[in-house]
Amino acid sequence: MTGLTLMVDKMSPKRLTLALAFTSALVVGVTASQIASAATNGNPSWRPQSSERLVKLPASYLKKSIDHDFKQSELGLALQNTDENIGLKAKTLNDLQSAVGQSQGEVQDELRHQFLGEKRDYIQLMSQRNELKRKHLVTKRRLFETMLEKVADSKNVSPVRQELMDKQDEAMQRFESSFDKVDMRLFKNGMAADSKYGQKHHENVSAIEKLMSRIQGHRMNSIPEDDGRPLTHEEQLRRMASNVQAEIALLDQEEGILGYMAKLVALDAMALAEESLDAELSDSDTPGSQGPAGAVSFFMNN
Amino acid sequence: MFTSIKTKLHVLALTIAVATAAFAGTNSAQAGTLENLERERAILVQTFMNPTLTPEQRQASIASTNRRLVDLERMVLRDKSLRGKNTKVVRRAFKSYDVSFMAHASAEKNLTLVDNWMEQFGLSTETLMTAEVGRR
């Protein structure tokens, strides 16, 4: 440490600035998680509510509805903003990389330093994005879990209620099987077979059937299938929840990649700092340490 | 400009979808079908037991009630809001089809309304005709 301090003392101000910058890059870029915690400013949020209405939405539309709600939220806007910044940063990195390849000497050193700094910023932004994305995915997963709980609750039927529903099914079957017989009997007894309610009911049923057939054929009402078997609402919700879980797992992997990137930036910074120090030492006027054998010639003549 | 219209359309579609979902949950929540049926049935039973009516008057009154009863019974049986509605009134209504849906049950069994009703209490025309007056 003392040795390093001495060397630093002898460096030119420009090289000293470079070395200090690399060291700061080294310190900052140790791990992606450290960056992430340091980079996230503010606390943008997204609080979707698992309402009854949302649960009843068709699964195909539900996803769009949730995504739309997220895009309008504080968290969605923050993520969008970060994505835009990352795009710009990637462009800067691309430009700098080609500039480094075309330059030489001190200019190249300067550009390499800038390139490292930009890489560090890129990693910070990516970590920030991942943090926001994780928040989004975790909230979305929680939302699906709540929705699945609600669906499961609505399916839980007490024995008394089940008995009532069985009775109602039984009554409906009996009613449908005796429907024509009842009408015939009314007609035979001199009462009009169809009352005003009966006539209107038939008209409405036929209108409802037409609408239902149009609804069933509507492309927005198509039910996703699995091997030709239509998926239930609950199955679709479960699939959406597992897709979110898969996205979270991929995000974990991406964070690993960012960690490696950060480590590479740190190593590059160390290499650049070492190169700068070597170049500084080679430029030095201080003679190298020599043994007495090298001074023998001074003693050979009087 | 285009984005704004696109966003507005999206929001509109969402609102309609949510409203549709709301409709699906509430359009069948009409109250009173069962209460109306109960009221009509009570009037019919009163007609059965009213001693001041002549047989012709009773018959005419029952015939007029029967038509309304058929409609009311159909309204109750088709009322989706009653599905699984675990209340005492609904449970009692579906406990016995023959008692609650008298018009349909009697037509199904080729009985008159009175005969069907009395049958539910263990009385038939035959048993009444063969009954003898005696001292206990």
Overview of the structural elements:
The complex is a heterodimer of chains A (302) and B (136). Chain A is rod-shaped and about 155 Å long. Helices cover 78% and strands 1% of the residues of chain A. In chain A, strands 1-2 form a two-stranded antiparallel ribbon. Chain A has 302 residues and is mainly alpha-helical. Chain A is built from ten helices and two strands; from the N terminus they run αααααααααββα. Chain B has two domains: 1-30; 33-130, no CATH class. Chain B is built from eight helices and no strands. Chain B has helices at residues 2-26, 33-49, 55-78, 88-95, 97-100, 102-108, 113-119, 125-129. The model of chain B is unreliable at 21-31 (pLDDT under 50). Classes of the chains: A mainly alpha (302), B mainly alpha (136). Chains A and B meet through α4, α5, α8 and α9 of A and α1, α3, α4 and α6 of B.
Provide a short characterization of the protein structure:
Chain A is mostly helical and 302 residues long. Helices cover 78% and strands 1% of the residues of chain A. Chain A contains ten helices and two strands, in the order H-H-H-H-H-H-H-H-H-E-E-H.
Task: Present the secondary structure layout.
The complex is a heterodimer of chains A (302) and B (136).
Chain A: H1 2-10, H2 13-28, H3 32-39, H4 52-56, H5 59-72, H6 74-102, H7 105-155, H8 159-188, H9 196-217, E1 225-226, E2 229-230, H10 233-283
Antiparallel strand pairs in A: 1-2
Chain B: H1 2-26, H2 33-49, H3 55-78, H4 88-95, H5 97-100, H6 102-108, H7 113-119, H8 125-129
